[in-house]
Amino acid sequence: METIEYGQAAFVALLALIALSLAKVYGYFRLPSPSVVPVRLRQVVGAFTVYFFSGFFLFPVLILLYRGGRGITTLQAGWLQITSLTAVFIFLIGYCFLIEKKARRFIFCGESQITLKRFFKSIGMGALSWLIAYPLVLLVSFLLGLVIQAFWGEIEFQQLAVKQLRKVMQYPLLFSVMVLFVTLIVPFMEELLFRGFLQSYLTRRIGRIGSICTTAAVFALVHFSISQGVGNIQLIGSLFVLALFLGWVYEREKTLIAPIAMHGVFNALSVALLFFGVE
Q1: Domain-embedded: residue 172
Q2: Could you tell me how far CA 270 lies from the centroid of its own chain?
Q3: Of 9, 271, 134, whose CA–CA distance to 279 is shortest?
Q4: Nearest CA to 208 among 249, 266, 237, 236?
Q5: How far apart are CA 73 and CA 96, in angstroms?
Q6: CA-to-CA distance for 170 and 74, rounded, in angstroms?
Q7: pTM
Q8: pLDDT 10s per residue in the chain (279 long)?
Q9: Looking at the 3D structure of the chain, how many domains does it have?
Q10: Other beta carbons within 10 Å of 221
């Protein structure tokens, strides 16, 4: 982790203040009337079971079947990981068609149909939400980085997804496919789970603000990894802020398209920074 200067933090704080002020002036923080949520606890439990069971067990099983327990190359591991993620994606989509149509429709598009106009509006709102949120996410990351520097000194850590992408940069086709997954497939799956299922259900129990905050906390904590060490503080803190905006834009637009677009833009920036040697 590079040394963080107070001047950098102050500049980002100014950008965050400007972005949030403009968002408030133009009504970004106004929510529409609440909806009757048809999502049930059993549906949420089922979705997370499908995701975590297939995600945690399918990849190791594929490795064992492929090499019989022997070591595999980085290239082979990368393609097996893509195969595993593809299977998880298919399982999740399949599960969505097993639940009640009313709940499925609400998760994806609220109480209204997705028209072409609404589709592009939601994408635009997701991108706009990223512009509003990113300075604040960056500011929280800077401030937590300063705390880490004060107590632990400078440390080197990378998020798991960045490590995985860095490993396969020497394989253009695999790297391109992984970028596609990181910017489209993974955001779709995570937003479906956390905003579509979990946040929707929690809204019935603890209200919209409570559900946004709780889901954001769960989302951030899921990205904890022992290998990231004390860097988890900075990562989880910044992801929590990002997830607050993901939850807000989902509640605001009543469609998964908006948070998926925002999540995808965020991940695409991380890939771009890695590609240009900034990460």
Answers
A1: yes
A2: 12
A3: 271
A4: 249
A5: 35
A6: 10
A7: 0.93
A8: 445 577 888 899 999 999 999 999 999 999 999 989 999 999 999 999 999 888 777 767 766 666 655 667 888 888 888 988 998 999 999 999 999 999 999 999 998 889 999 999 999 999 999 999 999 999 999 899 888 888 887 776 667 788 888 889 999 999 999 999 999 999 999 999 999 999 999 999 999 999 999 999 999 999 998 888 898 999 999 999 999 999 999 999 999 999 999 999 999 998 888 777 655
A9: 1
A10: 12
Full domain range(s) for residue 253: 6-23+112-275
Please compute, for residue 22, the number of CA atoms within 13 A of its CA located in the half-sphere on the CB side.
12
CA distance linking residue 77 with residue 81, whole number of Å: 6
DSSP H helical ranges for 26-180: 41-67, 74-96, 101-109, 116-152, 160-167, 172-180
- Token pair, residue 276, equals 């240009």
Q: Work out the widest C-alpha separation in the chain, in whole angstroms.
A: 60
- Report yes or no on 105 lying in a domain: no
CB of 237 closer than 8 Å to CB of 140: yes
Q: How many Å apart are CA 135 and CA 17, to the nearest integer? A: 8
Q: In which element (H, E) is residue 16 found?
A: helix 6-25
Whether residue 123 is contained in a domain is answered as yes
Measured CA to CA in angstroms, residue 228 lies from 81, 147, 199 at distances of 20, 16, 27
Per the domain annotation, does 200 fall within a domain? yes
Q: Tally the residues of the chain.
A: 279
